[in-house]
Amino acid sequence: MRIVVLAGGIGGARFLRGLKSAAPDADITVIGNTGDDIHLFGLKVCPDLDTVMYTLGGGINEEQGWGRADETFQVKGELAAYGVGPEWFGLGDRDFATHIVRTQMLGAGYPLSAVTEALCERWQPGVRLLPMSDDRIETHVAVDVDGERKAVHFQEYWVKMRASVDAQAVVPVGAEQAKPAPGVLEAIGSADVILFPPSNPVVSVGTILAVPGIREAIADAGVPVVGLSPIVGDAPVRGMADKVLAAVGVESTAAAVALHYGSGLLDGWLVDTVDAGAVDEVESAGVRCRAVPLMMTDLEATATMAREALALAEEVRA
Ligand code: FO1
């Protein structure tokens, strides 16, 4: 079975670990969000691609969900001693090596998709990891600070500001001119199932769908498209998704996120058992919906979620 997954960072990566366990023989292609990418210290950092690669390759810091296990921060300390920031973004020594290799290869003319493939040679994530695009796309967030509106990089909003002020708008800068990376449309076109993991619907899955051609290819693929709600009990399971959902006028409920994707894109939607009351509303919008436990507490719970998603896909296919 060929499965395509649109993934952000932590939520997407952990779901993929469960999916691999639930469907060990599946051929899985991951289309990764690159809107969170940032240039720091002259290096290109791709947090979501790296989170997927390290999580599936066994190198992730499990507690944090991002960055490397057994990390040290000597380089960060040395940069700070020179007064070179930003200090609010924690790049560790081991992680730095990834960004150095990536930046060196990009400088030599390789596209991000080829660089990602090369990095995965080391990590062997057991999936085909594709960036959504080889073109530069950066998510910016409009905020009002001291009565003035300004746009900040997504990482500044998320990590430095901790989403402490309302997001007025979320813009994937560069997306309109971008093209899907090689292999992306082909993977969607030959998929048997397409899954949206419990990733952020605005800044992760939403940014991938903003690359011209990807949303259309998924809608036209003619195969089941099933998503898992990242909102449980009217709050994001992780992160501050409610802030960016509000910016696009979507309530933080499992049903509202399904309706935001819409029945033109989504065939099936899983909500948590605490949101069982949302099932009827989602089904009346033309999306098959089931309530199952959606907390990724351990590998077995996550694999069960993946099995439920695949079962719902078969149900809508029938
Ligand atoms: N998240 C934080 O909350 N603080 C950090 O200092 C931080 C550093 C960081 C470095 C590399 C990397 O790959 C991810 C990192 N993240 C950090 C996570 C990241 O900012 C976001 O959680 C994702 O972009 C959202 O998907």
Could you give a short description of this structure?
Pfam families: CofD. This protein is an alpha/beta fold and 318 residues long.
Structure report:
The structure is a single chain. The protein is an alpha/beta fold and 318 residues long. It folds into 2 domains: 274 residues, CofD-like domains (Rossmann fold); 38 residues, no CATH class. 39% of the residues lie in helices and 19% in strands. It contains 13 helices and 14 strands. It has a 7-stranded parallel sheet, with helices on both faces. A hairpin with a 2-residue loop joins β6 and β7. α1 packs parallel to α2, α1 crosses α13 and α4 packs across α5. It is globular and about 60 Å long. The two termini are 16 Å apart. The mean pLDDT is 97. Bound molecules: ligand FO1. Ligand FO1 binds next to α2 and α6. InterPro entries: CofD, CofD-like_dom_sf, FbiA/CofD. It is an enzyme of class 2 (transferase). Keywords: Magnesium, Transferase. Its EC number is 2.7.8.28. Its cofactor is Mg(2+).
